[in-house]
Amino acid sequence: EVIAGKPTVFDPACIPAVVYTDPEVAWCGATEAEAAAKGLDYKVTKFPWAGSGRAVSMSRTDGLTKMIFDKNTQRLIGVGIVGAHAGDLIAEGVLAMETAAVAEDIGVAIHPHPATSETLAEAAEAMFGHAVHAAH
Description:
This protein is of the alpha+beta class. It has helices at residues 32-37, 53-57, 86-98, 103-108, 118-125, and strands at 17-19, 24-29, 42-48, 64-70, 76-83. Helix content is 28%, strand content 23%.
């Protein structure tokens, strides 16, 4: 577009990062440290993969899904995932951030069961204390 002289804008809400280790590590948006440095009023939610039926069936309960939400708007501002195929799972976090999703949007979206993608829904539901598969 630029070469053709057309106006263009590149303004993504976030760009995913993935470290292809075992387990994989992936993140997008603000980290907890960045949110604190910006003075944001935020809430961190976490879902340990020990509560994921799919992670249990794969013998990969070593994962964790972490989400960071703006406390006032409940808008997703960051995601961190460590676990099997985290590089694939982070795509949902990127899409949620690009569409300005709030915790409820992610939590009520139907996720396949059992699947590790449910860990994102569970982490979002934790915003309201509703992560039913989390160990309390």
